[in-house]
Amino acid sequence: MRLNSRLVAFTAVTSALTVVLSVLTVPFFFGTRIHFFQAGIMLAGVVGGPFSGLITGSIGGLYVAAMRSDPTIVIGNGLLGLFTGIFSRKLRPVLAGLAAWVLIQGPWIYITGTLILNVPSAAMQAILALLTVEDVICASVIDFLSNHFHLKDSLAGPVRRL
C-alpha cells in the first residue's frame, strides 16, 4: 500500500488506540488480568500493511515497556505488527495474526524473557499461555472487523477514472 494521508492518519489512530488498550485490563482466571492492545497492532498490520503494523506495534508497546522497564516489548510488538501485515497478504487476518504470534512474537518473548531478563522458564510458559489467549481473541476480532467492514477499501480511497 502506498503512503498517503489516509494511511498516516490510520496509523496514528491505531497507535493511539493501541496505547489506550494497553492501559485497560480485564479480570481473567485466578486473579490474572488480560489486555487486548494486540488488536490495534494486528488491525494496523492487516489494514494498513506491514509498515503501519510495525509503527503501531512499536508506539503501542512504549507504554507497557515503560511500565515494566522492558524495552524488548517495543521490538516484540513491532514484529507482531510487521509480520501480521506480511502474512495477511496471503492469509486470512485471523491466521496472519496467529502466525505472527506463533512464529515471530511468541519465540521473541520467550527468548528475551529467559535469556535477557532471566525469567524462569515455567513463568515464561505461563505468560505465553496467557498471551496466546489474548492473541487468539484479538486475531478473531480483527478478522471479523476487517472482513465485515472492508476496512482496506476505505484506506485506498475512491477510484478515480479519467
Provide an overview of this structure.
The chain is 77% helix and 2% strand. 37% of the residues are buried. The chain has seven helices and two strands. With 162 residues, it is mostly helical. The protein has one domain: Arp2/3 complex 21 kDa subunit ARPC3 (Orthogonal Bundle). The chain has a two-stranded antiparallel sheet with strand order 1-2.
Overall mean pLDDT score?
92
Measured by DSSP, the beta-strand proportion falls in under 5%
Main beta sheet strand tally, sense and closure: 2 strands, antiparallel
Number of strands: 2
Shape: globular
Q: For the largest beta sheet, what order do the strands appear in spatially? A: 1-2
Helix content: over 70%
Briefly note the CATH topology name.
Answer: Arp2/3 complex 21 kDa subunit ARPC3
Low-confidence stretches at least 5 residues in length (pLDDT < 50)?
none
Q: What is the helix tally?
A: 7
First-to-last CA distance: 21 Å
Cα-based radius of gyration, to the nearest Å: 16 Å
Number of structurally distinct domains: 1
Helix/strand class: mainly alpha
CATH class division: Mainly Alpha
Along the chain, the helix and strand elements come as: HEEHHHHHH
CATH architectural category: Orthogonal Bundle
Properties at a glance:
single chain, 162 residues, mainly alpha, Arp2/3 complex 21 kDa subunit ARPC3, 2 strands, 2% strand
Structure summary:
This protein has helices spanning 5-23, 38-48, 50-68, 72-87, 93-116, 121-149, 151-156, and strands at residues 26-27, 33-34. The longest helix has 29 residues, at 121-149. It is built from seven helices and two strands; from the N terminus they run αββαααααα.
